[in-house]
Structures are given as structure tokens and as C-alpha cells.
Inverse folding.
């Protein structure tokens, strides 16, 4: 059995997949959620699209590390109603990465590991995507220890400072952290810069070969079953130790 670990889990490409083209969705400033907000503000209170766009730009001007709730407040939209509508609309193009994801993640929390979400999404966007991955609000309250989105960490994952701050916020030591994700730079190289040495790389198998950084244990997994087996099966510590010995 592995000792309890702090697992930093990515969202896009790790818990959720985006297999269907959504380019027909109305967008504003590159975001379809903003497009939907403007549409709702127009319908509900007669806002013109220009007025809604101006309000959104005012939020962005004031706040670099915004959350979607900042826009909802500015546009005077009801948050639960908005998210219900956003979820219904996005079920068509955002799907759980794989079946039985909830059970697989529960095996990790039942094994004593702390589940933290590390994402280039802001907090409320993380909650929304988790719900679309089949991990509802109650499940999140029960199983997720920290939500480390851009608004909380005030950095992006492709910056090593994200990882240093995320570990501070989660009160986690790099030696107790495993980062799980599908983007080599964001989920391996940058946390490595911040001192993390253990990783699960969910490798879709169609990317260029990657070379492990010195002294790192990078487990390439084709899916969550393999990742969970590794994280709960007692081989994690051994493989990390073997890797560290190899590089010594
Ligand atoms: Mg990802």
C-alpha cells in the first residue's frame, strides 16, 4: 500500500474529453460560455450584445485572474440557472474521459489519497466540467480536497509558479505529490521545475516521444484503470525509488 499522497489532477483531457466540434456555438471574445452569458442577458433583461461585451471587458480590465462568477454578477445573471443551461448545452460536446470514472477516482480517495484539481480553468469552470464528467456537486464536496484553478493560484499551469503556489495552498510537500495529466509541459515539466518528481502521464499515444526529466518517475498510463492500479497498488513508491536510484 502506498502512503497517502496528494494527487494534483488535471481536467481537460484527463477527466473530460472534447470529442465533438463545437465551432457552431455562439462565442464572445473566444469563449462560448461568454457567448451564452451575453445571449441570456439579452434575452432576460434586453441587454444589447454590445453592452454585454462592454461589461465583460470591464471585468477583464479590472481583474486578471477572473472567475466565471465575476461575469455572471456583472451581467446580473442567476448563477445556478446559468450553469444548468451551460451544462445542458455542453453535454453534446463535452464527455467524461472514460466510463466509470467516478468509481475509479473513489478508489483513490478510499485509499487515503487527497484529490486536488489543478487546472487552467477558473474554479467555477472546474466545477462545471467535473459535473459534465459525472462528478456532481455532492461528489465534489465529499471527494475533492482542493480546487486549484487559475483564480485561486493566480498563474497558469505552464508556469512553474503555478505549482509552487498550488503546493502552498494545498499545504503539500513536493515529495508527497503526484501530478496526473495529459499535457507534457503543464503536467510534467513545470511541476518538475517546482520540485515534484512523480507523475502519471495519461498518454493518448499519438504524441511525440517524451524523455523523462532527470530523477523523475513518470508513469505513462493509457487510462484511469492503469493509473489507479499504480496509485493504489504499492508499486508507486518502489518505481519512484528505482528511478531515483537509476539516475543517481
Ligand atoms: Mg489537460
Amino acid at each position: 500500500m502506498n502512503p497517502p499522497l496528494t494527487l494534483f489532477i488535471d481536467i481537460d483531457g484527463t477527466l473530460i474529453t472534447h470529442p465533438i466540434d463545437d465551432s457552431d456555438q455562439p462565442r464572445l471574445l473566444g469563449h462560448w460560455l461568454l457567448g451564452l452569458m451575453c445571449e441570456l442577458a439579452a434575452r432576460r433583461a434586453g441587454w444589447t450584445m454590445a453592452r454585454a461585451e462592454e461589461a465583460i471587458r470591464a471585468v477583464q480590465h479590472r481583474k486578471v485572474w477572473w472567475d466565471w462568477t465575476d461575469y455572471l454578477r456583472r451581467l446580473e445573471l442567476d448563477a445556478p440557472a446559468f450553469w444548468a443551461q451551460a451544462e445542458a448545452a455542453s453535454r453534446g460536446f463535452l464527455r467524461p474521459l472514460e466510463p466509470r470514472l467516478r468509481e475509479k477516482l473513489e478508489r483513490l480517495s478510499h485509499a487515503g489519497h487527497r484529490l486536488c484539481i489543478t487546472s487552467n480553468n477558473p474554479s467555477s469552470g472546474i466545477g462545471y466540467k467535473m459535473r459534465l464528467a459525472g462528478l456532481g456537486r455532492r461528489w465534489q464536496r465529499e471527494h475533492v480536497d482542493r480546487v486549484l484553478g487559475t483564480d485561486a493560484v493566480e498563474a497558469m499551469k505552464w508556469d512553474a509558479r503555478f505549482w509552487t503556489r498550488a503546493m502552498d495552498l494545498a499545504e503539500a510537500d513536493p515529495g508527497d505529490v503526484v501530478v496526473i495529466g495529459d499535457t507534457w509541459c503543464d503536467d510534467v515539466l513545470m511541476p518538475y521545475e517546482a520540485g515534484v518528481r512523480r507523475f502519471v502521464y495519461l498518454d493518448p499515444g499519438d504524441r511525440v516521444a517524451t524523455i523523462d526529466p532527470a530523477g523523475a518517475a513518470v508513469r505513462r498510463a493509457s487510462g484511469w484503470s492503469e493509473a489507479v492500479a499504480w496509485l493504489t497498488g504499492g508499486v508507486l513508491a518502489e518505481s519512484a525509488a528505482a528511478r531515483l536510484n537509476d539516475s543517481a
